[in-house]
Amino acid sequence: MKTGKVDVLLGLQWGDEGKGKVVDVLTPRYDAVARFQGGPNAGHTLEFNGEKYVLRSIPSGIFQGGKVNIIGNGVVLAPDLFMDEAKSLEKTGHALRERLHISKKAHLIMPTHRILDRAIEASKGKSKVGTTGKGIGPTYTDKVSRTGMRVGDVLGPEFRAVYDRVKARHEATLRSLGYVYDIAELERQWFDAVEYLKEFRLIDSEYEINRLLAEGQPVLAEGAQGTLLDIDFGSYPFVTSSNTVCAGACTGLGIGPNRIGEVYGIFKAYCTRVGSGPFP
For the chain, which ranges sit under pLDDT 50? Predict the structure, then answer.
């Protein structure tokens, strides 16, 4: 049997190249669409039947009936923002719970990650990177330092203990920065959203994607941001916190390089960028 391939769609500039519109054209060719990096600051705008949608964490294939949609291990997920996005789609009749699968290895953006993001950015003064304040950078920091929370933790008996341990470390950092904050309401919403998150299929996505490929089914990997924001190859330090280039699809989905098929690079005739940093 011929094995399937993962085609990758990337932005070649600083994001906002119109990837969502191209994804809309490409998705009918694929059996599955997967996000492999980034967090809820990356929005793909799509229009269906006269309605406009902005997807921040959910793959664009959710609008195509019968497609499997996967949030891969390389993504960082904010339960409360995910719940808002998902519920708005459910209201319009999209069957998310049957078709959206979420990697148990994806890391969770906690309320204190968001506060840390703002506090660290404020401490930089004129050297601000221009983050969205969504907690994405601090979440990837915890991932690399092996101290973060993952989606799969919400299913375990030690979930609250893990949360409290990570939160305590964040609060120590915030005290050292002298940053004043109140997360009581944000925390309440976050825990409500965790219960909502549990209603979805939480999976080992690397096994699912490789099973689909072994069965000959094609997969589209949907990139966020753009190549010039890549953590290694972008305009460092004015970059995002993940690998936005093609190699990020391998680590963010758990596939070998030999599984990559076509790579679609999207750019526009003029350049724009959000945030700080050099701009030609």
Answer: none
- pLDDT (0 to 100) of residue 278: 85
Q: Give which of 157, 160, 147 is closest to 187, Cα–Cα.
A: 160
For the whole prediction, is pTM greater than 0.90? yes
110 within 8 A of 174, measured Cβ to Cβ: no
Look up residue 104 and give its amino acid: K
- Active site (catalytic) residues: 16, 44
Q: What is the pLDDT of residues 226-268, one digit of tens each?
A: 999 999 999 999 999 999 999 999 999 999 999 999 999 999 8
**Segments of 18-88 assigned E as strands:** 32-35, 44-48, 51-55, 68-71, 76-77
| Residue 30 contacts residue 222 (beta carbons within 8 Å) | no
How distant is the alpha carbon of residue 58 from its chain centre? Answer: 8
Alpha-carbon gap, residue 197 to 175, rounded angstroms = 31
Rounded to 5°, the CA angle 136-210-251 comes to 30
Q: How many Å apart are CA 132 and CA 15, to the nearest integer? A: 14
Side chain identity, residue 174: L
What pLDDT does 7 receive? 97
Query: What tokens were used for 206?
Result: 């690397």
So what's the pLDDT on residue 198? Answer: 97
Helices (DSSP H) in the chain: which residue ranges? 19-26, 79-91, 96-99, 111-123, 136-144, 159-177, 184-197, 205-214, 247-253
